[in-house]
Amino acid sequence: MLFARSKSRRVTAAHIAVSGNGLNIGFAGDECKFSISSPGLLATHCSVGIEGPTKPSIRFSTETRGTIDCFWTPPIAGIYKIFVRYNNDQVRGSPFLCRIDNPPNQALLPRIRCSGEALKTGFLNIYNEVIIEEANPIIRGISISMDGPGQPEIRLLRNPQNHIVLYRCRVPGIYQLHIKHEGSHVSGSPFYIQVK
Which residues form the Filamin repeats (predicted)? Predict the structure, then answer.
């Protein structure tokens, strides 16, 4: 009796899948991770290169068969390019663009306070005012965004003691006001606001 001999698939760059948050976003000084995987993957045929504001440290783990876990630590914030190649060919999606931010100051977040009736209720076609205060008179790294049924106009006035957020909506409905410090939500954010 003759048996058909199965042919093993030759792995190419087209067969490789790359996934993980460490391809897209991270914080300076923190270890980022992504995984490279495919059945029959050979670690010796795979290479990773990262370009950016400075050279990050990179280490690999091959504990799981068919998967290479890549751990890299960017020393400073900025945009990094991650190149993943197999047999010297770039895999799908390579190079990947990864945004690295400065780590949020968690100790400062509880001290940032937001106040004003406009955190709950807003009115159409006028500027509604929200005040951002912090125990230290210098506030840095504040960012504002707003989601809702319309496209609100937002202004941020920076003062030595506080910041003032002004928003004006032309469409009624429920809006979300996002107030962040260095990428992290302050206490209470996002705020849900009824605009009428």
Answer: 8-100, 111-195
CATH for 13-101 is 2.60.40.10
CATH for 109-195? Answer: 2.60.40.10
Buried b (16+ CB within 10 A) or exposed e, 118-136: bbeebeeeebbbbbbebee
All residues at 6 or more sequence positions from 128 whose CB lies less than 8 Å from its CB, including other chains: 116, 118, 122, 166, 167, 168, 169, 195
> Phi-psi region for residue 78, left (φ > 0), alpha (ψ -120 to 50) or beta?
left
Pinpoint the residues of the chain covered by CATH 2.60.40.10: 13-101, 109-195
Q: Of 97, 53, 105, which Cα lies nearest the Cα of 77?
A: 53
Task: Read off the pLDDT of residues 31-64 as tens digits, 9 standing for 90 and up.
Answer: 999 999 988 888 888 999 999 999 999 999 987 7
Token pair in block for residue 143: 């960012």
One-letter amino acid at 170 equals: R
* Residue (of 55, 97, 98, 94) closest to 74 by Cα position: 55
Name the pTM for this structure: 0.52
CA–CA separation, 111 and 186 (whole Å): 9
